[in-house]
């Protein structure tokens, strides 16, 4: 592996959170906004570990809420970089649930978060990301297609912004 390559595992950031009553919405499941905050926190660490540069969250997309988290659950978040381009990097985030009374695990959510670097000419180029596991290979394999989708979406968003009423 060259000096400007990293494995997905080298960027892995994890966090664990117990569900408390203050995390719950009126359905007695974890509020989606709480999950988005946890996702942004953990994925930003994976991004930082990969590039060691100042970056900001640009998009959070393909957010799939699969199963709810409730009291007596833990939220286990795994995030790792799945691709880089000139000034951006994509982080895949997987939220696993664990029923603390039984030990049963489930997939609660998945998403992709894109970070962009804050322009600094002295910063080195972003590393190439090398997948190793079957999961990493599958997810990284779709990176280029997701880049094309994001570029198309950016054009749509630019046009949308022109039509927004500010009054």
From TrEMBL:
Name of the protein this chain belongs to: Acyl-CoA thioesterase
Record Gene3D superfamilies: Hotdog Thioesterase (3.10.129.10)
Pfam families reported for this sequence: 4HBT
Family from the record: Belongs to the acyl coenzyme A hydrolase family.
Domain annotation HotDog ACOT-type: ranges: 9-121
Annotated keywords: Hydrolase
InterPro entries linked to this entry: Cytosol_ACT, HOTDOG_ACOT, HotDog_dom_sf, Thioestr_dom
PANTHER family according to UniProt: ACYL COENZYME A THIOESTER HYDROLASE (PTHR11049), CYTOSOLIC ACYL COENZYME A THIOESTER HYDROLASE (PTHR11049:SF24)
TM segment ranges: none
């Amino acid at each position: 592996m060259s000096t400007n390559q990293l494995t997905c595992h080298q960027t892995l950031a994890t966090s664990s959170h117990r569900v408390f009553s203050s995390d719950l919405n009126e359905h007695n499941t974890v509020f989606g906004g709480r999950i988005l905050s946890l996702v942004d926190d953990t994925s930003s660490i994976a991004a930082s570990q990969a590039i060691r540069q100042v970056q900001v969250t640009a998009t959070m997309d393909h957010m799939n809420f699969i199963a709810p988290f409730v009291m007596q659950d833990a939220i286990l978040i795994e995030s790792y970089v799945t691709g880089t381009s000139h000034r951006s990097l994509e982080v895949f985030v997987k939220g696993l649930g664990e029923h603390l009374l039984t030990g049963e695990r489930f997939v609660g959510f998945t998403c992709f978060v894109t970070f962009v670097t804050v322009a600094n000419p002295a910063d080195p180029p972003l590393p190439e990301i090398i997948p190793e596991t079957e999961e990493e290979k599958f997810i990284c394999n779709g990176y280029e297609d997701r880049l094309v989708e994001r570029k198309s979406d950016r054009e749509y968003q630019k046009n949308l912004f022109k039509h927004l009423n500010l009054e």
